[in-house]
Write a structure and sequence with these properties.
Elements lengths: L1 H41 L19 E4 L6 H17 L3 E3 L7 E38 L2 E38 L4 E8 L8 H24 L7
Parallel strand pairs: 1-2, 1-3
Antiparallel strand pairs: 3-4, 4-5
Helix pairs in contact: 2-3
Length: about 230
């Protein structure tokens, strides 16, 4: 009898144990999936690799900067580029293009957009008044009459207007390095974006020179042999 009771008691306890174990497993799986989802969200997306740089930039050492154009703006940008390259000390600059290994050519474009805004506000008012009065009397054979009228008016109009003009400039500077045989080994075009500042051309020129210096450095790193491993 006791054996049957024990068997029935153990059988009755199996169900809750399985249910409890299943709940624990489900909770563990849910926690694991939550942690994986958080890790996936916290992991930053992989950045796109930069395009391969031209290895011949390593050979660019003596450069002649040719005129960008006869206009005043092109001359100014050319002087900016020469000054930036001279400050970087990465190239030997010369004005004698026959002695140079490579030639740096460039062009510049600028666009100005004018945006006008005007606002006006007016206030008008008017006031008018009119009135009349008459009286008459007759006594016997004589009579008299009188009448009077009055009218008045007041009107006015006030208007205020505001206007403003905003200038937005955008510039693009293109640089390219050409070998003596006429082969273009490097080129870039940098835009300053739309802004209110009048230094849009200078910003585009600075970005173009910065790109040239960065690609030059990358080419030198790729060309240098890897250090030996101990």
């Amino acid at each position: 009898m006791n054996r049957k009771k024990l068997e029935s008691m153990s059988t009755a306890n199996i169900g809750p144990c399985f249910r409890a174990g299943g709940s624990v497993i489900a909770a563990i799986l849910l926690l694991a999936s939550t942690v994986q989802g958080q890790e996936a969200k916290s992991t930053p997306p992989a950045s796109e690799p930069e395009p391969a740089v031209e290895r011949r930039l390593v050979e660019v050492k003596r450069v002649c900067v040719q005129p960008f154009g006869p206009d005043t703006l092109s001359i100014q940008v050319q002087e900016m580029v020469i000054a930036k390259l001279f400050e970087a000390k990465r190239f030997s600059l010369t004005e004698n293009c026959e002695r140079a290994d490579f030639v740096l050519k460039g062009s510049v474009t600028e666009r100005s957009d004018y945006v006008s805004r005007s606002e006006s506000e007016g206030i008008g008012f008017s006031q008018q008044a009119s009135g009349s009065q008459s009286s008459s009397s007759r006594f016997g054979s004589s009579g008299s009459s009188s009448s009077s009228s009055a009218s008045g008016g007041l009107s006015g109009n006030s208007q205020e207007s505001l206007s403003s003009t905003e200038t937005k400039q955008q510039a693009a500077v293109t640089l390219r390095i050409v070998a003596k045989d006429g082969e273009i080994i490097w080129a870039t075009s940098q835009e300053s974006g739309v802004g209110k500042s009048k230094g849009a051309v200078g910003l585009a020129a600075e970005q173009a020179v910065r790109r040239l210096l960065r690609d030059k450095e990358r080419a030198e790193k790729q060309a240098s042999p890897a250090p030996p491993r101990n």
